[in-house]
Amino acid sequence: MVVEKSSNDGVSWSPLEFFSRNCSRINGMFENEWSAKFGNSLWKRPNCSEDTASWDAISTGRDLTVHLADKIRAMKGWSLAQTCKTLFNGNASDSNDPEPAIKFFLANKIRIRLLRPGFKNQKTSWQSLHYGISNINFSGSDELNNRFS
Asked: How far apart are CA 142 and CA 128, in angstroms?
């Protein structure tokens, strides 16, 4: 499954986070690859989470979360206050990232795609095609009215 955003009314889409049982096998990345040890140049790269991708995630009450704020803080090494300031004002001290980061997060459409993996044999296909979503909640800011929800 992937959560994607569009800033141009759905003409193009950018992935924000992948959810998989095996991130390295299915998506070619490692879980939570955005940790500080990988440097701060990859903060716009989509994350991959394995913690909510199992068959019992709903029955055990686990929530699926897109980790955008945590991702930026870990990669940049910022405090919460510094993260908020830089998101809206930009980071003039970083020549690679002079514009406000909030531009990356502005979206007028968000979608969830349930991805069907390619199978080498039919024997395993029945195990991977079951999805269950009970609730979808988004929190964020309405830029026009400056409301948070």
From this structure: 36
Tell which wins on pLDDT, 36 or 102.
102
**Per-residue pLDDT tens digits for 11-39:** 999 888 887 777 776 656 666 555 444 44
Strand partners, 147: 142
pLDDT of residue 57: 53
Residues 6+ apart with CB under 8 A from 18: 1, 2, 26, 27, 29, 46, 47, 48, 49
The 10 Å Cβ neighbour count of residue 14 is 12
Helices (H), 1-149: 23-26, 68-76, 80-89, 102-105
Query: Who's near 25: CB < 8 A, 6+ residues apart?
Result: none
Amino acid, single-letter form, for residue 77: G
Q: Rounded to 5 degrees, what are φ and ψ at 45?
A: -75, 140
Render the burial of 36-70: b for 16+ CB within 10 Å, e for the rest.
eeeebeebeebbbbbeebeeebeeeeeebebebee
